[in-house]
Fold:
Amino acid sequence: MGNSLRLLALVALTSVVATEGAALPAVALAEAGAQDARVIEIAAERFSFTPSEIRVKAGERLEIRLESDDTAHGFHIVGTDVDIELPKRGRGPATVTFQPKAGRYTFECSRVCGAGHEFMRGVIIATE
Amino acid sequence: MIASSTVENYLKAIYAGMAALEAGQRLLPMGQLATAVGVTSGTATTMVKALAESGLVEYEPYAGVALTAAGQKLAALVLRRHRLIELFLVRVMGYSWDEVHDEAELLEHAVTDRLIDRMDEMLGRPETDPHGDPIPNAEGLVKPQEAQTLLSCPLETTVTVTRVIDQDKEFLRFIEQHHLKPGEAIEVEARDAAADSVRVRGKNDQRITIGTRAASKLLVHVAHALLLCLLAMPALAQTDTQKAQPPRTNLSGYMDFHFNKPEFQDGRLDFHRFVLLVTHTFSPRIRFVGELELEHAFVEGLEEAGELELEQAYVDFLLSRSFNVRAGMMLMPIGIINERHEPPTYYGVERPFIDTVIVPSTWFETGAGVHGEIGRGWRYRAYVTAPLNAAEFDAEEGVREGRQKGSEANAGRPAVTGRVEYVGYRGLTLGASGWSGKSGFEFRPRFDVPVSLAEADARYSRRGLELRAQFAQIWIDNADLLNDALALRVGVNPNIGSALRGVSLEAGHRFLSRPRFGEVGAFVRYENFDTQYRMPTGYVPLLEFDRDAWVVGANYWPDPDIAVKVDYSIVGNQSSVISAPNSFNVGLGWWF
Structure:
């Protein structure tokens, strides 16, 4: 990233900081890929994700919010760098952004959560 | 006092100074604080007195200063802001890790909690910043870190760099240049006390010798040292030079121990279960899962003195979402508890009676099968396994002792089992299970003892409410022949029923939930379980085995993975002669 863009991002961030309660800086959000994202909420509990089948449009920016109803789980989209840990129950959601190309993306729990951990899988189906 | 940037910097400096104090030392000397903040001792003392009046620090003249709980929380929240900003600048804005500290020093005093929480969420609730420093949570709490350095970690053992505690730019660049950043797998080959040096082998077998001062600033984590001894080395060796790969071999487990006080009997303390769960990923599509259980803490040869059991040991071949194959030692896919039995997941010190007396949990056998998800939330499992051994059935516990447990199990006529379940609605699980097999293989002349089981269950868990219902029935055909054969063998007719049935209903609710305190829930369960539900022609049921139970109690979860349990179990039966004892039970169970 160029220095000028980096500086712009920092200025945007600090200007928002100065006005408490204002909206988030557009530059920062754009960098994170979360602007105009479609929010997908997924609940995790031994040993399932709900929903476990998610249909989206290819190229659509997804902001996936995951919340555990029990222990810490992982959320890994197989074949991608997306792999985050979900905090335990009551400790808030974890969020990750993902912009799939057309195809099927298996996701799975990547943190061993119990005897049935291997059942904890799902799929994102991205179509044109 | 409104926390100005000066106040926050003092609190932060005291926080850092206190963390570096020697064991037994409680107060940070004023001289050290003044040096850290970059002012004279007199200036520091003036500020500390003001902080003390605000209740943020304790100040003892000529001795030093310490944070109060309020000051500690405020300092931790400043650090939270600082570290999240650093991570945000690196991950989102493309800063390098050696240039974010100064930016964060400025921004940490200006950002709002709302913005910090949003950053935290966007970053996926990270636990550490780019330097590996732990990020306090919104309550100001920090997850404890291991504190081995390159000076204290074991030699010639793969360790992972977790934290760099010096944020000097030149030092950070040096660390990056030599691939010693957090996440890198390295090995200390030798330490030379005379030369004050440490030789490190890093990425691509690159070797570097660094001074002991630099080595003391690198904290490391010894990855699963126990596992390295116990398990396959090659898989872990592959990860030596791979950055940010999830562990391929994982150790987790659960344990629980109980105090049981049956009526009219002495209480018993029993370390009921010590279970280690080992998983290994050969590839994204081939996984191993193993579960080794020590029951009752001690193994002497008879079950009453403890059991060492291999409850799971299978390889999963993950072929597609709808069709996967597994083989080895598997949990039978029946009921709620058999496949989902980690102690914090259920109420009650002991497992429900229906899941021990009717469904013989933990029920595991060797075999092979398929599983998958066939639609939105619809899942199935179907296995072929070794059957139950009818020669071990009895009147009181039904088929429980008939489990062959994969120990040189007779598989002349394999059994089949399966389950269909729906998990498509948050918090709801609906399931139906079945098992069918011929269990008379041990008798000569051989005769069939067909056994079949049907089970249905429902579980709803949402916003603290937990509802469960379960029904199970077992049919034992030719139970009359079985009783005759066993009577000839042991001299006593065992009076085994031709049908066993159980029903269980439970309601619980977590009614108290506080971030620092934990959660409290209470429950009530009713069960009817009868191992003499139907008898073969000519047999009379033993009424003491037609039982029901009311169990009431509470769980306290200081952490979602730890449960302190207490309950009172009122057990009755239909016999007018033999009574079943009530019991008071206390337990502690955990998962990690």
